[in-house]
Amino acid sequence: EVYDVKNADYIPDSNQLLKAIFDIDRKVEDKSKPNPIITSLHRYYNMHVRRGVPVENIQLAFVVHGASTQHVLSNAAFRKRHGFDNPNLPYIKALKEQGVQMYICGQSANYAGINKSELASEVDLALSAMTVLTTLQMDGYAMIRF
Length: 146
Fold this sequence. Notes:
By secondary structure, the protein is of the alpha/beta class. The protein contains five helices and five strands. The chain has helices at 36-50, 75-82, 89-97, 106-112, 129-138; strands at residues 18-24, 58-64, 101-105, 124-126, 142-144. Strand 1, helix 1 and strand 2 (58-64) form a beta-alpha-beta unit. The two termini are 18 Å apart.
């Protein structure tokens, strides 16, 4: 959901390139609900497009680690662990269609016993979240962490 903010004093320059990496490690107690940070990427994308930023001027990425590693599992792997489908997959699939880069920390995945074959096909396995965060920030991505 995106709200139309009337008379905002600060709005994006529609010509500016918006590059952001979302750092996601939030624990979600109710595993049947999507990760709110993953859904926030949709809000970021939608509110800027609605405000006139061309889609080609929005470059987004996220990296999950720690408590959020389970949120990027395939349905089969998630179902095996939790007994129901992964509620994050519709959001992940839509984000991929918007060109969002998605990564899981390899260090966290190994710690949690997650194999690459268990990941949603849209998500890439990285050496570490720290690697993704540092390299994308050096490429001009601003880090967003809630």
